[in-house]
Batch of 2 targets.
Target 1
Amino acid sequence: HRKDLRLYMSFDQGETWTEAFQLQPGYAAYSSMQKLDNGDLAIIYEDGSIGNKDLHDCYAINYVVISSETLNEKIDELYAESFASTVVKNTVSGSATGCDSYGSFTEESNSWYTTWTSNDASGLAGVTVVASGNILGYATGYNQRVMSLRPVEAGGTYDLTITAPDGYVIDSYSIGARNWSASQTYKLIDPSSNEMTTSTTLKTMDVENVNAKTSTFKFYGSSTLNFLCVTNFAITLKPVLNLNTVGDASYATLYLPFDVTLNDGTKAYYVEQVADGKAKLTELTAGIPAYTAAVLINSDAATSTSYTKASGLTPVVSEADNLLKGTLYSTTLDLSDETNYYSLGKLSDKIGFYKFQNGETTTITLGANKAYLEYNAGGGVKGFALDFGGATGVESVRNSELSDFGKETMFDLSGRRVSKPSHGIYVKNGQKVIIK
């Protein structure tokens, strides 16, 4: 349309795009941008906001620079939003669209259903709402195509369970509803048993801080003659953090641009120092401050954990002093002998930071929000054991991405790999051994 020029950002390799700035309201065309050496973003474009608006016969050339500070602030803001939540809606205003455009009903009985499942148009496919009876339906009410609730029996109370798809947990949800008939009594009851009696005036039930795969609320209806119109139903999800199980515990690394606290008993650590072939970890007891690369440990061997966004956490360690480094985006590390990068993995079922070795391949690709160890060990050191000061375990990135260096691999006390050990003390399979 050559108008309303905007700058968009993507945080999922171009799958989705989010508006960051509007550069030019009105007519504009032929834009080009370049990141400058100082990190600023320079943009040049044709400004058609002057002259004849119909013929576009007069354009000016505009040159705009967005400072690196402004750009990074916007990246942090939008990244936090995109990573932290996915909102799934099942109704929107408009007589032609609504819950059945954003999902489908199944398990029918007399045109009433027990299950609604979201599709891609809703924001994310695979969210289910399952009722304990055939009480779900859809109708046009209040000029919207809405989900409707009607009891199977007058005076009945029914459970409705929301379940997040794989990889997500429910953060919160909001249900806005109004009665089709003023003469009927309907109630929505939240998981804490707080009741909301509805009316023909829109009322909203908000359920926050769920942090679980499922959440169940209740519906009460006094009559089967009419129904309750659910005119707004938004479910906010957040992705879980996958953990890798090794032995009796499970592990992951994490790097985020906002403060979080961890749930499910998962603990977080940063690398304070490297000495004597070990990486010493220090626990982040209050949570993980923004831009703090961390190792996660769950002593119950959970396969995933969830987090809660926080604010105001005091940085425990500077990025410079934390030997763990993080990446917000998928990145490839050069793990050849000349570099100082060590990715987290296992050696003979022992957890540590190791250089990836797979034949002639000396690179590893880390996913977004992962962390790695950066340390100049020298002498071709291949890895470091983990020193938790009495804690248990550490993360394994993806075991299939890491080579097993062999059960007979030995390191000296400086962390250097030894192929032909002589007399002395060495580390073998994570244990000290003495060769006399």
Note: Residues 390-408 have pLDDT under 50 and may be disordered.
Target 2
Amino acid sequence: MSSAASPVYYDPYKVEITANPYPVFRRLREEAPLYYNEEHDFYAVSRFEDVEKGLADKETYISGRGAIVEIIKANAEFPPGVLIFEDPPIHTAHRGLLARLFTPKRMVSLEAKIREYCVQCLDPLVGRDGFDFIADLGAQMPIRVIGMLLGIPEEDHAAVRERVDATMRTEAGKPMNHNVGETMGSGFEEYVDWRIKHPSDDVMTELLNTEFKDETGTMRRATRDEVLTLVNVLAGAGNETTNRLIGWTGKVLAEHPDQRRQIVANPGLIPQAIEELLRFEPPAPHVARYINRDVEVHGRKIAAGNAMMFLTGSANRDDRRFVNGDTFDIHRQARPHLSFGYGIHACVGAVLARLEGRIALEEVLKRFPEWEVDLERATLSPTSTVRGWETMPAYFKGSGSRPAAPAAQPEPVAPAVPAVPVTTSVDGSWTVTVKGPTGAESTTLVLENVGGKLSGTQSGRGMSSQILDGKFENGKIFWVNQITKPMKMKIEFSGTVEGNSMTGKAKAGFMGSFPFTGTKA
């Protein structure tokens, strides 16, 4: 069935959609500019004009009930200081406080320190055959910058990053836990209490001691709880956006080597390259709002109390706003995008994120002007709020003495499994069930074993394909299934066979590995 014959479907929790949402986004813009998802009960707009207009309308679309659909639906409550989940006047007060601490002048003054952190990350990699854009840079530099700003000791940066990341992560294909707000601020108590007694030259100290006009018009200092929450928000935002930007930088420029070489030849193109990267692959592809009053969108009336999702990732590629929006072009005419939001919730740290992205790209290109990425070993991050990479391994090709092999850290090797005596032939039909990101899915596997080499077919979802590279020896089994739906992907199955049962792992490219079981018919 052709795509034109079936209605467009968008689900932000479907891994097979979020892996590459842009074909769906294009269909939404053209076929369903106002979209309704019945299963998760939310509306969505996808055109630039609609997204920009909606984000600017703070009376109709409010943030005080959350900016994530699952949190809005849960009617979750958040403590004061969760800036992105606040409305005026309390949002105005807290944003004004942070704006005084994150001025463009102050951010620009950090350039030397940010560059120092990049150098410390990248110099030890020179001479290697590759590196990982996330593990070696994206997971290191941004948390050091925000940690330095906040006043968190450097030896604690990794632990802080892991704790903050844990609040953002979800089980693949699942909504975020709506109770995340209950832990906002936890883990930072010792730092805040230390700064109360020992002031220093950092943002945490300034948050504790700067007077601001609150939502009642009273001049006061932030409470301890407010500071705890604000520090948590800053630690998360300061790490997440730039981390994702760095990962997308590695992938997109590897896929556009001609433009990367132009940047190497003319580093003055780097700032506009960063803007194009942010437009093309925004770290946050959508944001939600609670509909506070009845509204009409594209001729349809929507009642107050519903949730509206603004698809910024789609708006950024709208041909009505950006010519050939699905094309990456560092020479594109400069026009504002929506990757840092719009209106009163525009990202207060946008200047810092752009600065870090620019410096990171400058320092990478100085050392590694040519690279390719290994998408088979890259892993998308499981989260319903941001879109980016857990790993983005890159390797150097044709770089003189450097071997042309992937240099990402190897995956953990499972303990050796004792050889299992072969008690049953694997020939015949098997039902193989993979516990994937969207639930258990079963296929039919028909095998023929000739001297340890396997051939056969694997069928499911209305498709059937020949298995590749099949092997069976001493109870261990391996084969490859090349699928084309819902996306083109190579899935590697490896496991053990005992009698009429098999167990193992199915590695699905950048989506990661999932357990599978098999039962002989």
Note: DSSP finds 17 helices and 23 strands in the chain.
